[in-house]
Structures are given as structure tokens and as C-alpha cells.
Amino acid sequence: MKVIVTGGAGFIGSAVVRRLVKDRHQVLNLDNLTYAGNLKSVAEVTGMSNYRYARADICSGRAVAHAINEFQPDAIMHLAAESHVDRSIEGPLIFVQTNVVGTAVLLEAAYEYWVELSDEQKQNFRFVHVSTDEVFGDLGTEGGRFTEDSPYRPSSPYAASKAASDHFARAWNLTFGLPVINTNCSNNIGPFQYPEKLVPSAIRTALVGDAIQIYGDGTNIRDWLYVDDHVSGLVLALEKGEPGKSYNFGGISECSNSDLVDLLCSHLDALKPRDDGKSYREQVKFIDDRLGHDLRYSIDSTRARKELGWSPVDTLATSVEKTLAWYLENPEWLEFSDSYGSRVGKPY
Ligand code: NAD
Ligand code: DAU
Predict the structure, then answer these.
(1) What's the gap in Å between 13 CA and the centre of ligand 1?
(2) Which is the closest atom of ligand 2 to the Cα of 257?
(3) CA distances (Å), 30 to each of 172, 201, 270, in order?
(4) Res. 151: pLDDT tops 50
(5) What is the arithmetic mean of pLDDT over 73-91?
(6) Annotation marks residue 247 as catalytic
(7) Taking the alpha carbons of 165, 169, 172, 174 in that order, is the dihedral positive or negative?
(8) How far is Cα 96 from Cα 166, in angstroms, rounded to an integer?
(9) Which one in 103, 311, 315, 347 has a CA-CA gap of 20 to 30 Å to 119?
């Protein structure tokens, strides 16, 4: 297949690109390299004959239409986004611009291209819109899991922007017939993540001797999935998913933030003991809570398991081990980098 991957220089998008290129698909990576994009994450496929990169902003209809018309894709996998909740609290409007406007611009460009295809090509075309479990809001202490039919109740500006883009993607399917598939996934863990999110941030601060900051009392629960398991789900959704449907992906690996940091610390204690012999746990500091901090997310992936034949390979334990080993081998990924653009300001 010829596949355009938007956001292919980011954490998950780069894993999608690496997988598709290795599977011998023709891939065009479309990314405008914000602070979170880094082409080193696709270094292992750069130079391969079935991989190309185009620096383009998904908010530019002209740039996106040019890339689509020139590449003539069989599918678009849309991952470009502003993805960090804390940044959406600091500055929400770029989230509206990229995640809502950018997605609508991309959908419209995809539609203009798709509508001119032959009937057979039209039927086979896919637009996979990659989204998050955060659109469903907070499970609180109620228990239960999010299914594809759960109501949308986003809490943060990030989650609201992703909820909006889910709705636009669905609207382009229902109104115009574009073969759109929505996916909603829980927290990903793995290599090549910009070090502002909990896992790489905790590893970074541990290693440099700073406070490992946990928001609030650390009881907030997230469901963790190894990034390559998410990618397998996205590829299955591309190959077997039914247009108009959405699919949830999650690891059944719920963990509180405190317990996750604890796990990271105990692995670090074993792999890279502190000079003073004390545990990295000594560096944990509970700080002011994130505004609007959702207490618990949990995903029911039954539909993806039954209809796509998807199941995750890694557990939380193996995900943490692999991720930690990778960051210890690639410590440069724990440094903030300004060199890839910084439209939303410097990291904090
Ligand atoms: P990321 O922040 O690591 O990467 C985002 C990429 O998008 C970067 O390469 C950036 O340069 C690019 N980008 C941003 N704005 C752009 C624009 N206007 N035009 C072109 N490219 C642009 O994000 P991620 O964690 O890899 O997330 C990818 C997608 O998956 C997002 O849509 C996110 O909402 C979703 N998601 C993420 C997680 C997670 O745990 N990280 C979980 C579920 C869903
Ligand atoms: O659930 C899927 C979402 O997971 C994705 O849609 C987002 O793109 C992705 O960033 C992630 O969002 P979170 O807000 O859950 O990820 P983050 O790593 O920022 O935070 C995870 C949890 O850890 C959350 O409860 C907040 C907390 N936290 C985070 C940071 C950065 C801390 O306690 N300390 C921290 O320093």
C-alpha cells in the first residue's frame, strides 16, 4: 500500500512509519517538526527506497493537497497532533488549531482526492484517525471501562480537541462517505518519546538527580500499552477495520502514577544504582495537582480483539523493562531539544 503517515516524526507516528516501511509499504511521512517531532526517530528507515519525508503543516490545505495529489496514497494514517495535556492547560489554542482545524483540513483534502478515485479505489481507501481514551473523560471511582459506545466527556483542552477531531472524522464518513476509521488508545510507553511525559520525564529527572515529580497524591490511574502493540492495532485497523467504526486499544495494564514511578525506580536501582547507594525513590516529590486531572482511565478492547484479531504482546512489566533499557542506551533522548522547532514555547 501507499500510505501517508502524518506526525511520523513523533513518538507513535515514528513507530508506525518504522513498521510500515519494514513491511514494504510505500510511506510518505508528513510532519512539520514541532518541538515534539524528531527525524532521528525514523533514522533506521531513512534512505530506504520505500520511505519519503515531506515537511508540511496539516493546517495548510495547499501543502496537504499537494502532498496527497503527488503521492496518490491508498491510505492516510493521521497521528499529527499536539499531544501533551500540560501544554494544553498552558496554551490551549494551538491544540484547537492543530488537532481540530488541522484534522478538518486534512479530511477535506483527503475527500477532494478520494472523490476523484475509481469506484474500486474509493472502496479500498482508508483514513485512520488516531485518537485517545481521554475523549471519554474520567472514570473516577465508579469502576468500569470505556467502550466504543461510552459518551464523550473530555476534561482537558487536549482531550476536548481530540474529541472534536474524532467527531469531524466521523462526520466526513457519515456525510461524505470518506472511509474513516477512528481509534482510541490508552497511554503509550516506549522509546523515542519527548521527555515531557511521565515515563521519560521520571527517568530523566531520576538520572540527573532532580525531583521525580508526581502530581497530587499519585493515585491517578492510567492504562499503559507498549507503543508497538498500539502500532499493531493501528495496522490491523487499516487492513481489517470497518469504515465508520471506531476501535479501542488498551493494555489491561492499569497502574497508579505512584506505583509506576515506584516500578521505574526499582528497575533503575538495579540497572544503574545511585552513587550513594540509596534508592531513586528518595527523589520522589509530590507536587501540586494538574488542573482538571482525571482520576482513572481504563479501556475495553473487546471489539479490537474480536473483530481485528488484535492482542497486545507486552505486559506493563516487560514494557517498563524494554523502555528503560532503551533510554539507558539512548540517553540523548532524555535531553530537551530545541532544534526541531518550538511553536508552543520551550519545554518546562
Ligand atoms: P507526539 O507529540 O510525540 O508527536 C506529534 C507529531 O505531530 C510530531 O512529530 C509533530 O512534529 C507533529 N505535528 C504536530 N503538529 C503538526 C502539524 N500542524 N502539521 C504536521 N505535523 C505536526 O505525539 P504522540 O504521542 O506520538 O501521539 C500521536 C497521536 O496519537 C496523537 O494524535 C495523540 O493524540 C494520539 N495518542 C497518543 C497517545 C500517547 O500515549 N502518546 C495515546 C493515545 C493516542
Ligand atoms: O491516555 C492517553 C493519553 O496519554 C494521550 O492521549 C496523550 O497524548 C498522552 O500524553 C498521555 O496523556 P497523559 O496526560 O496521561 O500523559 P502524561 O505522561 O503527561 O501523564 C501521565 C500521568 O502522570 C497523568 O496522570 C499525569 C501524571 N504526571 C505527569 C507528568 C508529566 C505526573 O504525575 N508527573 C509528571 O511529571
Answers:
(1) 7
(2) 23
(3) 21, 27, 40
(4) yes
(5) 96
(6) no
(7) negative
(8) 13
(9) 103
Residues 6+ apart with CB under 8 A from 296: 138, 139, 140, 141, 220, 221, 254
**What is the average per-residue pLDDT within 272-297?**
97
Question: Residue 17, class by beta-carbon neighbours within 10 Å (0-12 exposed, 13-18 middle, 19+ buried)?
Answer: buried
pLDDT band, residue 337 (cuts 50/70/90): low
Cell of 172: 466526513
Task: Return the C-alpha cell found at 69.
Answer: 495529489
- Which of 31, 57, 134, 138 is labelled catalytic? 134
What is the best residue among 18, 30, 34 to mutate for testing ligand 1's pocket, by most ligand atoms within 8 Å of CB? 34
Which of 98-107, 199-208, 333-342 shows the lowest mean pLDDT across its residues? 333-342
| Confidence at residue 341, expressed as pLDDT on a 0 to 100 scale | 39
CA distances from 228 to 15, 192, 200 (A): 7, 12, 17
Average pLDDT score, the chain: 95
* Predicted local distance difference test score (pLDDT) of residue 252: 85
Query: Hey, what long-range contacts does 172-179 have (CB within 8 A, 24 or more apart)?
Result: 172/107, 172/108, 172/110, 172/111, 172/127, 173/243, 173/244, 174/244, 176/111, 176/115, 178/107, 178/110, 178/111, 178/114, 178/125, 178/127, 179/114, 179/122, 179/123, 179/125, 179/126, 179/127, 179/243, 179/244
Catalytic option among 53, 158, 226, 327: 158
Whether the predicted pLDDT of 69 surpasses 90: yes
Q: Say if strands 254-256 and 221-226 run parallel, antiparallel, or are unpaired.
A: antiparallel
Domains of the chain: 2-347 (3.40.50.720)
Mean of the pLDDT values across residues 140-163? 95
Q: Is 57 a catalytic residue?
A: no
With beta carbons less than 8 A apart as the criterion, state whether 222 and 259 touch: no
